[in-house]
Hints:
Low-confidence stretches: none
Distance between the termini: 17 Å
Structural class: mainly alpha
Amino acid sequence: xxxxxxxxxxxxxxxxxxxxxxxxxxxxxxxxxxxxxxxxxxxxxxxxxxxxxxxxxxxxxxxxxxxxxxxxxxxxxxxxxxxxxxxxxxxxxxxxxxxxxxxxxxxxxxxxxxxxxxxxxxxxxxxxxxxxxxxxxxxxxxxxxxxxxxxxxxxxxx
Length: 158
């Protein structure tokens, strides 16, 4: 019983650490939302991909190349899920990829009422510190959600 309590405590601590790391990348201006999520999860998984994988997420910020469409953090989150649940040429599709991607979408939509960047930030001036803080929070939430999935599915050890 005590062991389970310790495991749950370690899980919560790890999830909050992941949230903080992803948010930190964005706050410091090192990465935008999608890049911060991909970098954080790649590192969490022990770098199964070269650091250059983060480049693949560079077109998603501000709703896919500033178009205001799908939230960049969510797009980066789906990419990060692919690190564990994606497939290579010739492999069968892993149903978990669809399940966890949909769960991420529904989780963010449940909190923010949308996964569309322009809808999620409509109450903020683009260059304002309030908008940046809002996007940082979303980035952290996406990274934390993915970390929890990976822990729950034994993709990472505590």
